[in-house]
């Protein structure tokens, strides 16, 4: 949050110096350049554990570097991040994504500065901590999948301590440094990445709010952004959109929402009954400039997440409508489809038509023309179809409250596209991550045993990417599938009712 124009980034956690030997000194922004000790047994165990991936030849090129600043475990984590983890943040290989083209080089630059000068910026050190924490959690998840529980626990603990250190350093950057905007934003995004690969998902919303406060504050004094800054904005936009769609606490009628409910005159009942499409204000381009794409922009929503920018904005409209409808139903118990609700959502049909009639073929033609590979184009086409069908399901399960039998076709379509994508990547030897949101939304409406078996298999197959999402999604969907009966009075989707 902001206090006097400054961001405070959560709790100021203590950090174990034995894990973070390159941590900034509390008062003087110093970093001790301690020589690395002998190779630890834990390091050797972790290295042996990595031989579980003989199908990935890149792992055999990893070496065990000495460093005057980083411990050997941290050197190993940095190598693991470079060779495996960073590649999972995009759905197709993209060396120009902010993760590979900005966050990673800047973290390496700051580690080099620590080695040569003995100190670096708090924000740069926070970025380095965030990347190492992400790598540690990803490694832990992968080892746990293979049954190496003790090693997994060790790396999970390392990730937790690095995460706390990153938050502490980021707080100090805000308090004591003249911020470099892109580096500070990148540091924040690196901490959000930790939330995604770990089980610390409860803090994700807090960290996204901190990001948003920074961007909005900067937008008051800055009108134009570089292509790198716009790329960072697109990462934030996607992550926030996904979080908003699944968070239990909405952001309706807040300044921070990308979809804001304009204030109307009169009492609350009159306000509820007079909301129109035009009163839902979309202001992302005003402060994020995500739709401004120039020849220098290589980090677009399409090349990172495999979907058109317009589809992401359409999803936001649906999420905004869901929040408005949910708020109305909470205030007016039993009014699922009352005349007042029809008034507040006279935009039902407007947004529903946009969803159902979204020009997918035209969008895909524009989207895939600029891709360098036919294989990449095929992945993007299928990813877009899966995402669009998931948006349809999301609208139907929250606004229309349709029975799952009406959604079976869309559920099957999402599953088929996601399965084919994984097959394509395996056959083409492509190491890139999946999008979990379409799978989770579709699986939450899969009340057919054969579909459930297929979704379980898909969630299991994508655990190899090292993210926590497959575990969480599989757990929630299993609870939905095992739910006995569905209350007629329920005013939301089954998965949200289960989580609440």
Word description of this protein:
- With 500 residues, the protein is mainly alpha-helical.
- Among the domains are: 2-178, no CATH class; 360-500, no CATH class.
- The chain is 59% helix and 2% strand.
- It has helices at 41-49, 72-83, 98-117, 122-145, 149-176, 181-197, 204-219, 227-246, 268-272, 284-287, 301-305, 309-331, 339-344, 348-356, 360-368, 374-400, 408-427, 436-443, 449-461, 469-481, 494-499, and strands at 2-3, 6-7, 259-261, 280-282.
- α2 packs across α4 and α12 (309-331) packs parallel to α16 (374-400).
- The chain is globular and about 65 Å long.
- Mean pLDDT is 79; it is low at 1-8, 11-21, 23-61 and 251-275.
- InterPro entries: Fun_TF.
- Keywords: Nucleus.
Global structural class: mainly alpha
- Shape summary: globular
User: Beta-sheet strand percentage?
Assistant: under 5%
Average pLDDT metric: 79
Helical proportion? 55-70%
Radius of gyration: 23 Å
Subcellular location: Nucleus
Keywords: Nucleus
Summarize the structure.
The protein has helices at residues 41-49, 72-83, 98-117, 122-145, 149-176, 181-197, 204-219, 227-246, 268-272, 284-287, 301-305, 309-331, 339-344, 348-356, 360-368, 374-400, 408-427, 436-443, 449-461, 469-481, 494-499, and strands at residues 2-3, 6-7, 259-261, 280-282.
Topology, please?
Blueprint: E1 2-3, E2 6-7, H1 41-49, H2 72-83, H3 98-117, H4 122-145, H5 149-176, H6 181-197, H7 204-219, H8 227-246, E3 259-261, H9 268-272, E4 280-282, H10 284-287, H11 301-305, H12 309-331, H13 339-344, H14 348-356, H15 360-368, H16 374-400, H17 408-427, H18 436-443, H19 449-461, H20 469-481, H21 494-499
Antiparallel strand pairs: 1-2, 3-4
Helix pairs in contact: 2-4, 3-4, 3-6, 4-5, 4-6, 5-6, 6-7, 6-8, 7-8, 8-12, 12-14, 12-16, 14-16, 15-16, 16-17, 16-18, 17-18, 17-19, 19-20
């Amino acid at each position: 949050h902001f206090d006097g124009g400054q961001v405070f980034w959560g709790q100021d956690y203590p950090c174990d110096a034995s894990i973070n030997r390159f941590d900034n000194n509390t008062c003087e922004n110093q970093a001790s350049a301690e020589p690395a000790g002998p190779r630890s047994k834990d390091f050797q165990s972790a290295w042996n554990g990595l031989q579980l991936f003989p199908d990935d030849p890149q792992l055999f090129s990893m070496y065990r570097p000495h460093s005057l600043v980083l411990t050997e475990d941290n050197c190993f984590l940095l190598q693991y991040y470079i060779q495996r983890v960073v590649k999972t943040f995009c759905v197709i290989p993209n060396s120009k994504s902010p993760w590979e083209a900005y966050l990673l080089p800047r973290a390496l630059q700051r580690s080099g500065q620590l080695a040569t000068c003995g100190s670096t910026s708090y924000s740069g050190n926070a970025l380095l901590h965030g990347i190492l924490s992400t790598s540690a959690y990803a490694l832990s998840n992968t080892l746990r999948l293979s049954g190496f529980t003790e090693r997994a626990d060790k790396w999970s603990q390392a990730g937790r301590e690095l995460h706390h250190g990153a938050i502490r350093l980021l707080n100090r950057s805000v308090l004591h440094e003249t911020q470099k905007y892109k580096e500070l934003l990148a540091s924040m995004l690196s901490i959000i990445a930790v939330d995604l690969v770990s089980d610390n998902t409860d803090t994700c919303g807090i960290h996204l709010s901190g990001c948003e406060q920074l961007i909005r504050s900067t937008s008051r004094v800055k009108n134009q952004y570089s292509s790198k800054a716009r790329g960072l904005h697109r990462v934030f936009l996607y992550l926030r959109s996904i979080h908003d769609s699944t968070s239990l606490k909405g952001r309706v009628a807040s300044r921070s929402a990308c979809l804001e409910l304009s204030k109307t005159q009169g009492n609350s009942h009159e306000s509820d009954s007079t909301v129109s499409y035009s009163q839902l204000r979309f202001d992302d381009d005003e402060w994020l400039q995500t739709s401004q794409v120039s020849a220098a922009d290589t980090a677009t929503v399409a090349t990172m997440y495999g979907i058109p920018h317009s589809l992401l904005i359409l999803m936001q409209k649906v999420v905004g409508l869901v929040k408005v409808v949910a708020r109305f139903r909470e205030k007016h118990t039993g009014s699922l489809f009352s005349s007042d609700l029809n008034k507040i959502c006279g935009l039902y049909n407007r947004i529903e038509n946009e969803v159902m009639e979204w020009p997918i073929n035209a969008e895909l033609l524009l989207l895939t023309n600029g891709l360098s590979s036919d294989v990449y184009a095929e992945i993007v086409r299928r990813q877009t179809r899966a995402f669009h069908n998931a948006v349809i399901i999301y609208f139907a399960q929250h606004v229309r409250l349709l029975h799952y039998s009406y959604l079976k076709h869309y559920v099957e379509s999402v599953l088929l596209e996601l399965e084919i994508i994984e097959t394509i990547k395996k056959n083409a030897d492509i190491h890139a991550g999946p999008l979990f949101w379409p799978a989770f939304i579709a699986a939450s409406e899969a009340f057919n045993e054969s579909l459930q078996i297929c979704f379980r298999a898909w969630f299991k197959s994508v655990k190899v990417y090292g993210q926590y999402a497959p575990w969480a999604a599989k757990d929630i969907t299993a609870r939905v599938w095992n739910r006995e009966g569905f209350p007629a009075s329920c005013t939301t989707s089954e998965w949200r009712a289960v989580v609440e």
